[in-house]
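A favour, since you know our structure tokens better than I do. What I am after is a single protein written out in full by you. Could you add the entry underneath, on a fresh line?


***
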Amino acid sequence: MKKIIFSIILMVIIIPTIQAQEKGYKGMFNAGWILLSENTSFEVLTVHGYQFNPYLFVGAGAGVNYYCTSDGDDAGYIPIFVDVRGYLLKGKISPYAEAKIGGQITYNENGTTGIYFAPEIGCKFALSSKFAFNIACEYILHREQNIAGIYSGRSCYIDTGGLCLKVGVEF
């Protein structure tokens, strides 16, 4: 009798925590604050893809990264990327590691392009098998090829980015 009661209690505790995303389509929307000294900067991204199992998601996304300095200079990037996310646990609360890599278009007078790379660690808090909240910390790296003077013909690379604190939803 004690074994049966113990088994029932154990099942009541364990079964609700085994609620992971099923296979299939998954979408994400994230927004974050990019931490740079003296800058007001933010990121907004959307990612859509396929959840292969409770541990692996692969998708593609796009968004906007905006940087504004205290002296009024601003820069903006439109990243377009491939996203891979690995969940470490199968339960309602699961830490994850993620990497986004792709290209970017700079929306300024030059219209330059470059590389976008953003590794991330975070935690998912599932409210159901189809909906979850995320909090995360990400490092964003933009590598932009720029022309160093219109008439010189020389090119240089400009690296920008920073640490980003993010919140988001999965659906």
The beta strands are 24-35, 39-53, 56-69, 74-87, 93-106, 113-126, 132-147, 155-170. The longest strand covers residues 132-147. The radius of gyration is 20 Å.
